[in-house]
Design brief:
Distance between the termini: 26 Å
Structural class: alpha+beta
Strand order of the largest sheet: 3-4-1-6-7
Region (Disordered): 98-155
Helix content: 10-25%
Biased composition (Low complexity): 98-145
Radius of gyration: 25 Å
């Protein structure tokens, strides 16, 4: 008896690099390891697959790039010849926070130190420098706010996007 193949096609959106995918009993191919790319996985496990049976997950990993901000939405489609059901789509959105460059915080801090080193200024200028320092410190604290851990706050940080199909 011959069985229809089960195939998953996943178009990886712009904003990801170092793509990898694996899964037990899946034959997986990539069009590229940098998005946009297409991942095609064909089930090579035991047939027949019974109604309601869960197949092993396909796990996709990637490193987010700056193009992933503010989010990436991944859509995978499962297909089997002759299957007309419409419940064959999986959608996963990852929200990504832009990571502010810490070098600008260091530069602001150095500039604040330079303003404080001008001790021959009159009292009014010193007050202005202090106000500027406070403003820069406020900006520094805003710029260095940590990102949410699952949003890829560091665009070069590797995250795992798990797509269970």
């Amino acid at each position: 008896m011959q069985f229809n193949s089960i195939t998953v096609s996943d178009v990886i959106p712009v904003g990801e690099k170092d793509l990898n995918a694996y899964g037990s009993d899946w034959d997986i191919h990539f069009s590229s390891t940098v998005s946009p790319a297409v991942i095609t996985a064909t089930y090579v496990g035991t047939y027949p697959v019974n109604a309601g049976e869960a197949l092993p997950p396909i796990i996709i990993t990637a490193t987010l790039t700056n193009d992933a901000v503010p989010s990436v939405t991944d859509v995978a489609v499962v297909s089997t010849p002759g299957n007309l059901d419409t419940n064959n789509i999986a959608i996963d959105t990852v929200f990504v926070e832009n990571n502010n460059n810490n070098h600008s915080n260091s530069n602001d801090h150095n500039q604040n130190n330079q303003n404080n080193n001008h001790q021959n200024n009159n009292h009014q200028n010193n007050q202005n420098n202090n106000n500027n320092n406070n403003n820069n410190n406020n900006n520094n604290s805003n710029n260095s706010s940590p990102g949410l851990p699952f949003t890829g706050s560091d665009p070069d940080q590797e995250i795992n996007i798990l797509a269970y199909l």
